[in-house]
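Dear support,

I submitted the protein below through the web form. The confirmation email said the job was done, but the results page showed an empty box. After a refresh the structure appeared. I'm attaching both so you can tell me whether what I see now is the final result or a partial one.
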Amino acid sequence: MSETKTAIFPSSGPYTPGIVSGGFLFIAGQVGIKADGTIGATIEEQTQLVIENLGNILRAAGCDFKDVVKATTYITKPEYLQAYNKIYMEYFPEPRPARATVIAGLVDEKFLIEIEAIAKLP
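What the results page shows now:
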């Protein structure tokens, strides 16, 4: 028996930003970039943009931040953690999602943060 998958914001690129399957929304890693291609200059700006991008995908699937059950964050420097946490906590209500935070290099050195998430469909 195969599970149905529905794309959220289908992409012409090699990935889909969001997939709905099995009662969950799986969101691909989002970075701090605007629709016009502008990249945030600071960790605060990029974190805000990343979370706004996540929110757009959540809303397109009928979800909200309260529905996120798991988040994985990749940041390029440990000293970014405090600024990231401050903004993250403004969006994700209690109980906050289970989360992993990894210090890692990203696909482009201009990106300081990337977040992927899984949300339970309401």
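Response: this is the final, complete result; the empty box was a page-load delay. The chain has two helices and six strands.
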